[in-house]
Amino acid sequence: MSTPTETETPSETETEGGTRLSYETRDRLYHLALYGSAALFSAVILFPIYWMVQNAFTDSQTVITEFSWLPSPETVTLDNFSVLAAGAVPRYVINTIVVTAGTIVVVVGVSLVAGYGMARFRFRYKESFAQFLLLGYMFSPIVLGLPLYLIWSEIGLLNAQIGLVIALSSISMPFAVWLMWKYIQTIPESMEESAWIAGASRWRTFWDVVVPQTKPAIVACALFAFAIAWNDFTFAQILLPSQESTTFAPGIMRLIDQGGYTSWGDIMAVSLLMTVPPLLFAYFLQEYLLKGFEVRTR
User: Fold this and answer.
1) Helix/strand/coil percentages in the chain, nearest 5
2) Short-list 238, 232, 118, CA closest to 176
3) Where does the sequence pass through the membrane (predicted)?
4) For residue 117, what are the CA distances in angstroms to 101, 215, 274, 297?
5) Distance (Å, rounded) from C-alpha 222 to C-alpha 275?
6) 20: which strand partners?
7) Domains (ranges, CATH) in the chain?
8) What is each CA distance from 106 to 40, 115, 179, 253, 271, in whole angstroms?
9) Could you read off the pLDDT of 228-264 as tens digits, one per residue?
10) 296 closest CA partner among 179, 182, 174
């Protein structure tokens, strides 16, 4: 039995050309490619936000006439944010807050009751009904918006913010109901049975036992509804044609089309206003958000 003249160490491997590449080198190259790809992806995602912030704090004339990757102290100004208190912009912001708050209340309230009913009651075709709920995601807002425009105009909900709340809730509800249904299934039924033995009604048990334990799912549903309502453009553009009742995104677009705003500094300032709240909500509530999206099996 012949012994090999060369012993290949476990930390090395031979390439096709005969050169040796250690595992440490391969690991470094892998991490270099991984971190380089992550940095490139982050730069592509964050650059528009950086550009918006820079232009929001830059003099409007400088934004048009000069190009700079970094702001200079001479051009930094807060004058662009004066637009937030002028003209129709404050009304758009208030309308957006009202619609968003209404959508969150409707989505969270209905999904809690519906999710509890699906998790605790047995009825025929429950699985089919749950799958049927997801059919709402097959249709884009533009497809649903045109029929809703005709229906809302007939029943008097056109240019009414409650009509927009109903429309936004309808596209947020399927996911919220599914999330609440799966989350409530993780709550032991024995806790409710103990409350029933103590004399509590089903409604009291639901309110005192189930609801406190579904806070992560409530936060997740609320953030999901918030994101859809706060960033909505299509439904608001179709269902709120009036300039007085519309929300932020279509309202600003209409002002730009009508020549109301030609300053890029002002546009970046109001865009920054619409971007900051979702980021703050997601950052401070991310712990509850991640817990709410967890689906555990019993």
Assistant:
1) 70, 5, 25
2) 118
3) 29-51, 92-117, 129-152, 158-181, 217-240, 267-290
4) 24, 17, 36, 18
5) 17
6) 14
7) 19-81 (no CATH), 88-258 (1.10.3720.10)
8) 40, 14, 15, 28, 27
9) 999 899 999 999 988 888 888 888 888 777 665 567 7
10) 182
